[in-house]
Specification:
The chain is mainly beta. Helices cover about 10% and strands about 40% of the residues.
């Protein structure tokens, strides 16, 4: 719940919507129409947080207007994570209000003033911020070596499921303040989310969100991950020699578009690991001719007997892009965002589009996410399976 590796966050709001290996998405154009290539986000494993002690007074930060984020980490500004409330996977009742608090120590050489802030950067599903303001500034100065409790007041949605919101710690210049090299996040389960009991083998569990059903069909523990090179369960190749856990699942997609699962994660004991996917059987013609398609995702995690963990898919989107996808997205967005303007570019040019204008108050990151979602037809759902081995 607390951290995302900053090494992969240069374009965090695009990362969840761009399939691995897809073409680059352009950033906002200036007079030279500059474009950049986004990267994918891979949440790093984190330690299980401890309950906050009472010796450090709780600070009530002030919610203010957003500040610009500069994708540069200030090496003099450093923060050390101490503890948090509502660790990953905490259950919260529907509609309930709760306070998410991190205790951070100033591990740098500069004093944090009231112009330092944590800023909202992304959420899954993308339209659910849990009521978080865009920016929360500190209400008290923090000298090097001192600690502070930073609290965000949140509200759980009325719909059950898993939700994740991520914030970034910034200095007054908008530069990143590294929290042990990571960002901060809240990951909660809303409602009475029941765990599946599985010691391995075939299971039958389905989750439907945003009109799309995902069926979890099999879990295999402690199996060599040799399947990974060809995407086949019985592949003789040994792309990985290590063992891990393998999930088999099928998705009932809306149509015959080349959809793929994305933002695939395994969460256990407060640690989140990002995963990939392969087709369950690429030799089966139905894999490419039916809207109901089956996949395999593998992780190198060892899961002990009796352990609780969750397997989740954050969104589905198109696998690959065509030249006509960008113009089609322009037609879709023109009625919703008439002041959002971007120029489509040929795929062989490296970047798919150049952002030229956005509505007042819309950040570059938000504009890029909206365009990328339209181009790839992204569907956010947060399909989550809670499992006990």
């Amino acid at each position: 719940m607390k951290k995302i590796n900053l090494l992969h966050l240069s374009t965090i709001l695009l990362a969840v919507s761009i399939f691995l290996g897809a073409c680059s998405i352009a950033k906002k154009a200036n007079s030279s129409a500059q474009t950049v290539t986004p990267t994918n986000t891979f949440p790093a494993p984190t330690n299980t947080p401890t309950v906050l002690a009472s010796d450090t007074p709780t600070i009530s930060p002030v919610a203010t207007t957003p500040i610009s984020i500069i994708q540069v980490t200030n090496i003099q500004d450093k923060a050390h994570y101490i503890s948090e409330t509502y660790p990953d996977g905490s259950n919260v009742d529907t509609g309930a209000s709760f306070d998410k608090t991190w205790r951070l120590q100033n591990a740098g050489t500069t004093t944090w003033t009231t112009d330092y802030a944590i800023a909202y950067i992304t959420s899954s599903p993308s339209n659910e911020k849990l009521g978080s303001p865009d920016t929360i500034r500190l209400s008290q100065a923090v000298k090097p070596g001192e600690s502070i409790d930073i609290t965000v007041k949140l509200t759980a949605p009325q719909t059950t499921g898993s939700y994740k919101v991520t914030w970034r710690f910034l200095n007054p210049q908008g530069q990143i303040v590294s929290v042990d090299g990571y960002d901060l996040w809240a990951l909660i389960n809303v409602g009475n989310v029941q765990a599946i009991s599985s010691s391995g083998g075939s299971i039958s569990q389905s989750v439907t969100a945003s009109g799309v059903r995902i069926d979890l069909t099999n879990i295999t523990y402690d199996k060599p991950l040799s399947i990974w090179s060809e995407g086949l369960i019985n592949s003789p190749d040994s792309f990985y020699s290590t063992s891990g856990v393998i999930f088999e699942y099928c998705i009932d997609f809306p149509d015959l578009t080349s959809w793929s699962p994305q933002s695939i994660t395994l969460t256990m004991n407060g640690q989140s690991t990002n995963g990939d996917y392969r087709f369950k059987d690429i030799k089966d013609p139905a894999t490419f001719t039916n809207s109901y398609r089956c996949f395999v995702s593998a992780f190198t995690n060892t899961i002990p007997a009796g352990e609780n963990f969750s397997f989740s898919i954050g969104l589905i989107g198109k696998d690959g892009m065509l030249d006509e996808d960008c113009p089609a997205a322009q037609q879709v967005l023109i009625t919703q965002y008439p002041d959002l303007k971007f120029t489509c570019r040929p795929l062989d040019g490296g970047a798919l589009y150049t952002l030229t204008k956005q509505p007042n108050g819309m950040s570059d990151q938000e504009a890029d996410r909206i365009i990328a979602d339209a181009i790839q037809k992204n569907i956010y759902g947060n399909w989550s399976f809670n499992i006990t081995r």
